[in-house]
């Protein structure tokens, strides 16, 4: 039978067959020894072939093949540095939720996520959430950041998952697509999904006042069918985001504004660090490239703080 993975717990997978039936499935042990260095060889969104074993209450599915993926999102496993964590597969559009307080999303995290989405072929839209609660200073900062990313080519929308501001724009973009919501815990992913599809009644939680970070309300990645022909993948909050399978020579290609300038560099293999005749460095000096983006790039190329977590390191 052919089906799509709707939920992954790491050991069990909830699979929806082509006739709309759901099955709890396990994977064959051989998947774990075929060179897949992932903490979860099967991801939400994967199309799989499986067989049903047993009868009645004893029915269980066994996944025996993962069909080719159109794309996927992956990051380094925080606890197992030599392995990766597959976030989701076969995604048409990912919405990255950003908040400038409670919790704060830093540019380094945004840029790592965007570079990874570019590398794996997943279109990304930035949603600046909680705009209804911002001070005048933070509203100005939000407008500045949104303008920065729009100039690069990314769609940016200011929203309020609580009040519904501009949520209809998000719904229009989602129609007919498999979408993913991503971001730190506490940025409002579950609140936004509940606003879009109230019938799902996803659990939400307040941001911790002590640490100004979100509390995890989504334990496992899970996909939901929505009434207007879309599917949404809700993911656990991402605290750290490590790069996977990127050579330092190619990282600049996943910064669209750097890639556009690259032909103007004196050397074809320019890393945009200390090389003479670098078009990116020249654009930076002229204010045509954002300093925050360049800092993120240098951090990624040099491997400083390889898995960027919430907030800068002490003393920075």
Automatic annotation (TrEMBL):
GTP binds at residues 129-132, 183-191. Residues 89-239 form the EngC GTPase domain. It is an enzyme of class 3 (hydrolase). Its EC number is 3.6.1.-. Binds 1 zinc ion per subunit. It holds the Pfam family RsgA_N. Zn(2+) binds at residues 265, 270, 272, 278. It is found in: Cytoplasm. Keywords: Cytoplasm, GTP-binding, Hydrolase, Metal-binding, Nucleotide-binding, Ribosome biogenesis, RNA-binding, rRNA-binding, Zinc. InterPro entries: G_CP_dom, NA-bd_OB-fold, P-loop_NTPase, Ribosome_biogen_GTPase_RsgA, RsgA_GTPase_dom, RsgA_N. The keyword Hydrolase applies. Its cofactor is Zn(2+). Residues 80-241 form the CP-type G domain. One of several proteins that assist in the late maturation steps of the functional core of the 30S ribosomal subunit. Helps release RbfA from mature subunits. May play a role in the assembly of ribosomal proteins into the subunit. Circularly permuted GTPase that catalyzes slow GTP hydrolysis, GTPase activity is stimulated by the 30S ribosomal subunit. Belongs to the TRAFAC class YlqF/YawG GTPase family. RsgA subfamily. NCBIfam families: ribosome small subunit-dependent GTPase A. PANTHER family: SMALL RIBOSOMAL SUBUNIT BIOGENESIS GTPASE RSGA (PTHR32120), SMALL RIBOSOMAL SUBUNIT BIOGENESIS GTPASE RSGA 1, MITOCHONDRIAL-RELATED (PTHR32120:SF11). Monomer. Associates with 30S ribosomal subunit, binds 16S rRNA. This is Small ribosomal subunit biogenesis GTPase RsgA. It comes from Robiginitalea marina. The gene is rsgA.
